[in-house]
Amino acid sequence: MKEIFLCKYGELALKGLNKSQFEGALVKEIKRRIARFGSFDVRRAQSTIYVEPLQSLDCGDEVFDELRKIFGIATVCRAAETEKNMDSIIEVVKSYVPPLLSGKRTFRANAKRADKRFPLKSPEIAAQVGGAILDAMKGKIGVSMDFPEATVTVEIREEHAYVHADAVRGAGGMPIGTAGKAMLLLSGGIDSPVAGYMMAKRGAKVEAVHFESFPYTSDAAKEKVLELARLMSDYCGTLRVCCISVTEIQERLRDTVQEEYFTLLLRRCMMRLAARVAKARGCDALITGESLGQVASQTMLAMGVTDPAADMLVFRPCIGMDKEEIIDIARKINTFETSILPYEDCCTVFTPRHPKTRPELSRVIAEEEKAQLSALEDEAFEKMEVFYKSYFED
Ligand code: ATP
Ligand code: MG
Known about the structure:
It is built from 13 helices and 15 strands. It has helices at about 20-35, 60-65, 85-100, 120-135, 190-200, 220-235, 245-255, 260-280, 300-310, 325-330, 335-340, 360-370, 375-380; strands at about 1-10, 40-45, 50-55, 75-80, 105-115, 140-145, 150-155, 160-165, 170, 180-185, 205-210, 240-245, 285, 315, 385.
């Protein structure tokens, strides 16, 4: 038996983008993401993308799960292809449908006959298919015509017939890359992977920059961040990560500026360096995992003084979310368990006892001048390490 996958996108998602650009990006992303499972014909017709294996496929579940993580796909439906005669159709229904209905209490069978030459009419096909399912599932399920928990559909098309259950929800959003490229400031925490996911969902191609502070932060802390990037790539596509050491910058700040300004100045420096990497990589914006009021450096006034250092658009998709809401998404995308592993972050090195909560930009800049950071920032930028193909396959 041959199984194919039908991916639909919501028409609403097309607002602001032309359809062929959207479909083209989506087809390309689907091909790239499922290539490891075998060769497929991926084609579009009537607002549906057909994904058809070109060889027999013993990993249908994996392909289905992968398709459900691709942004731009609103629903995914798996269907068995059969020959156009009732014997073949019934045989396929009996083997293919029961696992799809497991856990459901009621179903209804449906038939669509695009090929009007087929000898049976739709209600007769549906009746035979319904009977076959009841037989095969031996009383574990009943029929409900009005409020079924699942619908099984047989479609008689020109070349073949197809058997499928309901479509399930896909990842939604827009195909990656249709909304430009952005640079995520990726820490080892819970929030920044979620922030990257949310922007990728809206079609941004995300790259990441991570700041480390070796030996104050360990290699294990860096590995954790690379693992987060790897986990994120399930949804966001391959994530290029670059690591920049801010050890000397932090030491300089510690030695030259008033302690209460330390965190703000470090954050300004991170924004400046991130923007520099972003521009070098052709990104149009930065992304952070900040959430209003979560910590002292995430007050409006604090963000008001760190933002100008970036000199670039900054997205903070978690800004209005509670920690619980962020955690729910982190769990869904499978980053939560890694994020809560207890490793240090450079932001927690030399943390002031009383950080400035009502900073003034002019005062902050005056303090920053004392540290004379620009040569150290140039050096940090030059020494940046890039993790890409060695960690993730493109
Ligand atoms: P997260 O859970 O994402 O670590 P957080 O609540 O711990 O966030 P902060 O440590 O104040 O908050 O960091 C705020 C944001 O600054 C992070 O979401 C991230 O975007 C960025 N950031 C913090 N530390 C780093 C780092 N070491 N490298 C890159 N970006 C960082
Ligand atoms: Mg953090």
